[in-house]
Design brief:
about 220 residues, Rossmann fold, 2 domains, 9 helices, 5 strands, about 55% helix
Length: about 220
């Protein structure tokens, strides 16, 4: 959480984006690595999707240059796995055997772009530079969403019940009447909710819950 209590991570604490090249063709990996090196990017190379998945724990922003068709685990399968474990990863698919259905599905599942081989080198470089920025933005949003949910999960059942009613727009008097307690007791709970979640105010907390779709 940032110093202002908003839930947004401090930008200085966000790790650098790592670019990954994931392709079972060693020659392609070497070529793409050389191309990225021309703009001072040193990628991490994996020849199999499953070995990348074993190595990447989601703790930093990641931009993937990902082949669609590979043995053991396809690029599409890796995307599905990452959508569960690290949805903030930015994926640029590349394929020599792409079709419209494949590319549409990849984009609907959150891919940044789908390139058919052969592609223009500058086009890939432009997309990677975009992906580095997008990966960082998505990492920050994902980290914030997890933090907001963690703070909500720290509340008791009664505190969550009161927070839900606050989210619905009910003032303390109405909440007290609905739950059969005094207004003073409701206000005590509101103060505890604010303190336990570290929010600047209940309104700030409500904003974060709605913005990041936290479960109360």
């Amino acid at each position: 959480m940032s110093p202002d209590g908003s839930g947004d991570p401090d930008p200085d604490d966000v790790p650098d984006t790592v670019v990954y090249v994931i392709d079972d063709d060693a020659a392609v990996c070497e070529s793409v690595s050389w191309l990225l090196g021309s703009i001072d990017i040193t990628p991490e190379v994996h020849h199999r999707a499953d070995t990348f998945l074993e190595a990447y724990d989601g703790s930093h922003p990641a931009c993937l240059i990902l082949d669609m068709r590979m043995p053991r685990m396809s690029g599409a399968r890796l995307q599905t796995e990452l959508n569960e474990s690290a949805p903030h990863a930015a994926i640029i698919f590349v394929s020599a055997h792409g079709d419209i259905k494949m590319s549409v599905t990849a984009m609907q599942e959150g891919a940044l772009h789908f390139l058919e081989k052969p592609y223009e080198p500058q086009q890939l470089l432009d997309l990677v530079q975009e992906g580095i920025v997008v990966a960082r933005e998505q990492f920050v949003e994902h980290a914030t969403r997890l933090d907001v949910q963690r703070r909500i999960d720290s509340l008791t059942r009664r505190e969550k019940e009161i927070l839900q009613l606050v989210i619905e727009g009910l003032p303390s008097q109405n909440i007290a009447r609905q739950l059969g307690m005094s207004v003073k007791t409701v206000d005590v709970h509101r103060a505890r909710i604010k303190a336990k979640t570290g929010a600047d105010s209940i309104n700030t907390l409500v904003r974060d819950v709605l913005r990041y779709h936290a479960t109360v």
